[in-house]
Design a protein that fits this description.
- By secondary structure, the protein is mainly alpha-helical.
- 71% of the residues lie in helices and 0% in strands.
- Helix 1 (4-14) crosses helix 2 (18-40), helix 4 crosses helix 7 and helix 6 (132-143) packs across helix 8 (159-176).
- The longest helix is centred in the N-terminal third of the chain and has 23 residues, at 18-40.
Length: 181
């Protein structure tokens, strides 16, 4: 859905209004940073990707037609930037750079803490086994909760192709995490 406030700010920004663009950045930067961090697995890389994406968005604003919502348009720019960075990486990411999600406090049981750490490590390895395209679609669907149509617009493919990528990603992750069921 297109936010009329975003649309108006985007039009003003496309005309050179830096304050309007700053308002758009403030409004969307948190969501875009969360998306990039989930895709990249590193806060520093995510910040770089989002910064590059916002620079690209500023330069491309005259081309923004408003067919899709401004947030969807930004998702596409951030996703494409992350995909480019992910594809240029060496085949496997260093596990030390993978951000661990917040886990419940396991200080009461060292065995549970070790088990939780091992599960997170295994999930990070399983995520690394996904292609960059599968990872992006899976994160946008399962973590961000985006509909298939929005993901398709963001990635530049049909919703049916998004469904297929998410399905394959789920299968890879389920097989990799089977020992943890």
């Amino acid at each position: 859905m297109t936010d009329p406030g975003d649309r108006l700010l985007a039009v003003r920004a496309a005309e050179g209004d830096e304050e309007a663009f700053e308002m758009l950045v403030r409004s969307h930067s948190r969501a875009m940073l969360q998306l990039a961090e989930r895709l990249m697995g590193s806060r520093a890389e995510a910040e770089d990707a989002v910064q590059d994406a916002f620079v690209s968005a500023w330069r491309s604003l005259p081309e923004y037609r408003g067919d899709a919502g401004f947030a969807t348009w930004l998702y596409r720019i951030v996703t494409n930037r992350c995909l480019t960075l992910l594809q240029s990486r060496r085949p496997s990411a260093d596990l030390e750079t993978v951000a661990e999600p917040a886990a419940p406090d396991h200080r009461s049981s060292p065995a549970r803490a070790a088990e939780s750490h091992a599960a997170v490590r295994d999930l990070a390895q399983a995520m690394d086994a996904l292609s960059a395209e599968q990872r992006v679609c899976w994160v946008l669907r399962e973590i961000e909760g985006q509909p298939y149509e929005t993901i398709g617009q963001a990635v530049g493919i049909r919703p049916e192709a998004v469904r297929a990528r998410v399905f394959r990603a789920r299968r890879v992750l389920m097989e990799a995490m089977a020992a943890w069921r």
